[in-house]
Amino acid sequence: MNDPVNVAITGAAGNIAYSAIFRIAAGEMLGPDQPINLKLIDIEPAMNSLKGVKFELEDCAFPLIKEITTTFDLDEGFENCEYALLIGAKPRLKGMERKDLLKDNGKIFKPQGIAIDRVANKNIKILVVGNPANTNALIAMHNAPSIDPKQFTSMMRLDHDRSLAQVANKFNTEISNIKKIIVWGNHSNTQVPDLSYCEVSGNNIKSIIEDKWYEDNFIPRIQKRGAEIIEARGLSSAASAANAAISHMRDWVSGNKDWLSIGQISNGNSFGISNDIMFSFPSVCNDGGFETIKDIVISDKLLNYIKITEDELIKERDSVLDLL
Ligand code: NAD
Ligand code: LMR
Hints:
- This protein is of the alpha/beta class.
- The protein has 2 domains: 5-154, NAD(P)-binding Rossmann-like Domain (Rossmann fold, 3-Layer(aba) Sandwich); 157-321, Lactate dehydrogenase/glycoside hydrolase, family 4, C-terminal (L-2-Hydroxyisocaproate Dehydrogenase, Chain A, domain 2).
- 40% of the residues lie in helices and 20% in strands.
- It has helices at 15-25, 47-60, 74-78, 102-119, 133-142, 157-170, 211-223, 225-233, 239-254, 300-318; strands at 5-10, 36-41, 65-71, 83-86, 125-128, 152-154, 178-179, 182-184, 192-194, 199-200, 203-204, 256-265, 278-286, 289-292.
- The strands form 4 sheets. The protein has a 6-stranded parallel β-sheet with strand order 3-2-1-4-5-6.
- Helix 1 packs across helix 9 and helix 4 (102-119) runs parallel beside helix 5 (133-142).
- The protein starts with a strand and ends in a 6-residue tail after the last helix.
- The mean pLDDT is 97.
- Bound molecules: nicotinamide-adenine-dinucleotide and (2S)-2-hydroxybutanedioic acid.
- Residues 91-92, 98, 131, 158, 226-227, 229, 236-237 line the site of (2S)-2-hydroxybutanedioic acid (LMR).
């Protein structure tokens, strides 16, 4: 058994956290040999409900859980944390876009970045889930200058997994047969799911996918899947978001040679994307880190789509300059 690590989760009394925490406690994120001190953070009015989550965790008698802290104090919550899932933020309602949340949610991530900078382990790995996730991650990152910007990521894994599922459905095949999916850009309705390099059972599918299906069906389906779920459930995705968050952190920590989509700081990228935005690039995870895939040729048509998502991220950033 390893020594325990500290895992902070914000929005710990909310829906996504309720689907994530128990799986994390069971070892699905950091493995069966990694004991965990859970630091559950929410706002003060949610403390009673968070106490209930703690009671339930205790009742599960998870062997890996060594301590459970519930708090609204950010310094207490992030102290010596090696991992942080920043989930706590308002979800959108029917008819809204995720960027409409920036005004209310952006300001949550400045004090969290400051606290992480002040008290967290300097090697902390951070995943921002709360929407709009990319720009919220940028806000947290800017406020934590002592932490390497590459340790801040924003969640694109749900979009990536949604793309896998749609391709599996289209080709009537197993998820495990599909490789090299890419989702570029923002976790918003401008994101660019890209199948140019996608392989099904080892065969590139570019020449066999119909442009009409790709452009009129696949791209908008992925871009608007979150809204489709809100329309159906009356609530935004929770279990699938929690699953994506666990997969993102697990692969970052333990490695995964498959191509993954990771929202990361764009500085110094090889695709000509502007610096200082949190942009999703195709990446592989190894040795506790991740690297973007190089040598990808992007068609002119896709470059036009990518420009739209890049411009949106620049606009989002420029609307929160006071928080950076
Ligand atoms: P929820 O309303 O069920 O829970 C949010 C929780 O965050 C609440 O308990 C609330 O009290 C807490 N919270 C609010 N402000 C906080 C703060 N300053 N510090 C700590 N906690 C705070 O919402 P949810 O369904 O869990 O969704 C959370 C966020 O995740 C939303 O913004 C949603 O849009 C987003 N989301 C992102 C993705 C993605 O792929 N990136 C997917 C699904 C949902
Ligand atoms: C999702 O993609 O399901 C989440 O970002 C929630 C939303 O607002 O769409």
